[in-house]
Amino acid sequence: MKERMNMGLQFLLYFLLVSHAIVAEGLAVNWGLKSSHPLPPKIVVNLLRDNGFDKVKLFEAEPGPLRALGKSGIQVMIGIPNDFLASIASSVSAAEQWVMQNVSNYISQYGVDIRYVAVGNEPFLTTYKGMYQQTTFPALQNVQAALIKAGLSRQVKVTVPLNADVYQTATGLPSGGDFRSDIHDAMLSIVSFLQDNAAPLTINIYPFLSLYADPHFPVDYAFFSGTNSPVVDGPISYSNVFEANYDTLVWALEKNGFASMPIIVGEIGWPTDGNSNANIEYARKFNQGLLNRIIQGKGTPKRPSSPDIYLFGLIDEDIKSIQPGDFERHWGLFFYDGTVKYSLSLADGQNIVPAKGVKYLDRQWCVMSPSASATDPNIPGAVNYACTYADCTSLGAGSTCNGLDLRSNYSYAFNQFYQTADQQKAACEFSNLTMITQVDPSQGKCRFEIMIDLSSREVSPPPPRNRVHPNGSGEGFHGVKKMLWRWVLVVFMMLPLFWF
């Protein structure tokens, strides 16, 4: 009898530990740093706190954001970029050095509440063709060893954020789920190691990409409001792709002996521009449905409790790679300057609120001169140059500025370059094609930006937000060093203008 009671208590303790590891508490979000004009880190941290986000994931250990997160009450996941995996995999001392500089240092000196180190970022993507397959697991082992040596392994757990393409289903149903054959052994090694170290598996799920990749994908299946054609898997009926995708992973884990493996959803969200399906309406619908699930603690048929879910992302990033698509720069819940894109209701009915204390450059824009001809032979080269060094993704097919007339289209490109170059006069001198105006050229949903002022001088108040869709975005330079480099880049950008 006494033995059975002890076993029962042990089981209850194990259940509570596992439940604590996989059940969501609060709101989590990804803070991307690929921005030409990043919001000051302190402003971003206040934005997180004002909107109830108590967990954040950084893709790399940027000093500014990490220092700002110190003593903020926000739990942090720090990423190690894929380019670092080889060196960390080959040397325990390299892992120890990384942990000392980027984990121990910020915990002890700044009071940053670091909970996870994300080793790599989707290293097993099929598009990488096995580039990181040999280094991911050794790097994971070395980082764990470094955390143990630093005395941080109980507080800080390792994980590997993986894309959902690491598992597949031969039957088209979640119950057919298993890990991809080419990485099956590597996945079992990683999952077993994570389980042995009481660490979670992190997976990124993107219903938007299912819709983007397949024009015949049922639109309603991407959201959370039900579908006329559910996927029926035995006694379970799946009404949305998120639940089906997540449970495919659960089945894959169960089949390989890891039924209780904790899971974190490391990235999930919906973009607002750069594609016809990347729009405000769909993003609001998806993210509100997702937030409702998180707030209600709703999980999936295979795992009824909600896992930690990190929304992607916090702010738009105007220098992020667009190799996957123009939409890559528009995943933010907020525009580049931290202004609200669309209303979202959080816990207790509170709506998301914008960033406070943002300073802007002067209220002026670079546009095509009325005296310039739209058929001027210099225009194609000038526009191509402007869009090479500035973000013109909102001009693409299905995007918010796609409906502009020809002259406005050119003006948008010129203004993006002008703002990215900090409104330097020479950045609006394209062979007498352009002029500076104080009249806002924005049209409907298409916003002609005014960039954030990153200098210390006092500037004019922010542009008026009387349109349906205001504007905002990201964060991420290495303090003074990166500020100096940014000015070098601006000068470099402007030099060729004198040859137009």
TrEMBL record:
Signal peptide region: 1-28
Where is it chiefly localized? membrane
Q: Name the reaction it catalyses.
A: Hydrolysis of (1->3)-beta-D-glucosidic linkages in (1->3)-beta-D-glucans
- Membrane topology annotation: Lipid-anchor; GPI-anchor
Record-level GO BP terms: carbohydrate metabolic process; defense response
Q: What is its EC number?
A: 3.2.1.39
Instruction: Enumerate the subcellular locations listed in this protein's record, separating them with semicolons.
Output: Cell membrane
Which Gene3D superfamilies does the record associate with it? 1.20.58.1040, Glycosidases
Superkingdom of this protein's organism: Eukaryota
Ranges for domain X8 come to 364-448
Presence of keyword DNA repair: no
**GO CC terms:** plasma membrane; side of membrane
Q: Which family does it belong to?
A: Belongs to the glycosyl hydrolase 17 family.
Under which name does UniProt file this protein? glucan endo-1,3-beta-D-glucosidase
To which species is this protein native?
Answer: Dioscorea cayennensis subsp. rotundata
Query: Source taxonomy lineage?
Result: Eukaryota, Viridiplantae, Streptophyta, Embryophyta, Tracheophyta
Chain's gene name? LOC120261356
